[in-house]
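Note on ligand handling. Small-molecule inputs were canonicalized before submission; formal charges were left as drawn, and no protonation-state enumeration was performed. Where a ligand contained multiple stereocentres, the stereochemistry in the source SMILES was retained. For zinc ion, this procedure yielded the string shown in the input block below.
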Amino acid sequence: MSLAKSIYLAGAKRRNPGLYGWYDFLKESESWELQRLREYQLQELKRLLLMADKHSVFYKNYFRKHGFDPAVTSLEDLKQLPPVSKTELILKNDQIHTDLKFDKRFFCETSGSSGQVLTFWRDERWDSANRAAILRGYSWHNVLPWESNIYFWGYNIEAGKQLRTRILDMFQNRYRIFDYSPKTLTRLLQKLKSATYMHGYSSVIYELAKLVNEEEIELEMPLIKMIKGTSEKIYPHYQEEVQNAFGRRMISEYGAAEASIVAFECTAGNMHVTMENVLVEVEEDEVLITNLVASSFPIIRYKLGDYVKLSESRTCACGMEHPMIEEVRGRVGKNIHGYEHKYPSLTLYYVFKNLFFEQGLKFNYQCVQENKGSLTVLIKEPFTSRGENLIRAEFGKYFRNDVAISIIFSQDFHSYTEKLKDFISRIE
Ligand SMILES: [Zn+2]
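Structure output:
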C-alpha cells in the first residue's frame, strides 16, 4: 500500500468511521432501478420527517402550522409543505437543531450571497454519507481520493489558517493554489505532470485553461483522469477552453455545505442526482432540497437558491437510473427592476446563452443594478461594435424599453476573493 493511501485511509477512518460502509452502500445502490430508489427515498423521507417532528422544535411547529402530517405515504405528500429559506435556517437555527446526541459531529459554516452566515452542526453519518457520495463520483472516473491532485481554491485564507490547511493538504496528497496570478499558474504547470485529477472553482479552472490556450503552452499531464468544477456555474464557453487546453471537459459536482452533494457527473456527461442522500424537487425553476441523511440539523424542502432544470431523459449511457440534472442555470438573485415590470435574474442566463449558441459570442459578464429602469452590463472582453449591438438586441427581446442598458467592456470584475456573481442588485 502506498504511503499516500495509508495516510488517507487512516485519516478517513478516524474522522469518518461510517465512510466506507456508506460508500459500499452507494456502490450497490448505483445499479438499483428507479422504482427501488424511489421506495428507498420514501422510507428515508418518512423516517426523517418523524424524527424532525419529535426532535426539532422548529419542524414540529412548522408541520403543525401548515397542517402537515409527517407520516407521509408518498413522495408527493411532501409538496404540501411550504419551502424553507436560508434566512429561516439562520434565524431559527437553535430550534432547527435536534435534541439528539451524537458521538461525533462537525461544525460547519457557510456564507450566503447576501453576506449572511449560516452555521450548523453536521453529524458523523451525514458527513460520511456526503463524502461517500463524492468518492462514488470519483470511482466513476477511476479516481482514487489519495492520488496526487491539484485543488484550485483561494478566497483569502489568513496566514494562521494556511499552515493548518497545508498540513491537511499533505495528508490528502493535494497541492493547493492560493492565488491566481499568471506567474503562480505557470509554476503550477510543473505540478500537472504528476497530477491525476484537478478540482476547484470552475471560473478558476477556466482562467487556467485560457492562459494555456493564449500562451500556447504545451501541457504534459499524462496521468490526468478528471477535471472537476464546483461551486460556480459552468458556462458553455468554459468547457470549450477547458477542452482545448486539457483535452477533456470539466465534469461537474453540484452541491452545497448545508445540502450535501446533490448531483455528480458520470462518464457519459450526465449529472445524476444522489438519490440515496437527497430528495430533489424543482418548483418554478428553483431547486428544493430535502437532505435524507441529516439528523443533527434537518434540511427539509430547502430553497438552495439555484435555478435548475431536470432532464426529461430517463436513460443514460452509463446505465444508472438516477434522474439527471440537465443544467444548473444560475443563482436565484434579486429581481431586475424595470420602470414598469420586474424580471427574474434568470433573464441574464437566457441573454448570454442565446449570444453563445446563436451568435458564437463568448462573454464573461456581470450585471449591476443601482436604480430601477437601468442596468450596467460589465463585459470582460474588449469592445467590438458587433458585440455591443448584439448584446443590446438580445436584452431588447426581454426588456424592450423598460430597462436602459449601459455596456462597459474590458472590465475586470472577478476579484477571486469570493464566488463570481452574475448579478448584483443595490436596490433595497
Ligand atoms: Zn450516467
